[in-house]
Design brief:
heterodimer, A: Immunoglobulin-like, 11 strands, B: mainly beta, Immunoglobulin-like, 6-stranded mixed beta sheet, globular
Amino acid sequence: NAGVTQTPKFRVLKTGQSMTLLCAQDMNHEYMYWYRQDPGMGLRLIHYSVGEGTTAKGEVPDGYNVSRLKKQNFLLGLESAAPSQTSVYFCASTRQHPVAGYEQYFGPGTRLTVT
Amino acid sequence: GQQVMQIPQYQHVQEGEDFTTYCNSSTTLSNIQWYKQRPGGHPVFLIQLVKSGEVKKQKRLTFQFGEAKKNSSLHITATQTTDVGTYFCAGEAGAQKLVFGQGTRLTINP
């Protein structure tokens, strides 16, 4: 099993450009999340999904959109990138099972720089 | 909204010394999780605590969940260079969401 994978690993954008980050998991997990990590800020939730076809806003959703058309994929879109969106983006998934556990499995991250 | 505060932000120790990081929530938590992130890596799950006053051990790591389920701690005995990284606590915020603390970055002088 590959676990959680993210594409791309690195990206440099110019202000105003758009892009989509792809997250894929092969563990058949229902729940998927997008976080951003900035120095000294920990991990902040952008959007999340509790199942195929559903999405919800997290703590810092402005400037981002998401889609979960397939259970295994969770896409994060930046419509018009801004320098404030320079960050490391992590995708995570979890089974949220009362017996198997609630741990989140994280992807390797995407380092995004907006100039 | 719910906030999870973690202290200290940084900790530098000599190899062999003990290390503790503390986590405090503004609200009662249903459970708390701990993650470790190595430099340049991604967070990796360590443990979940659910019960009030729960204490769990993983080799040299001891995790505690407060009686009021609003605070938690991670204690590492006799640190080793492999313990280097950032340790995060994360509290369940309902609707299957976690709120992460800011993390404690541990560096070790060999």
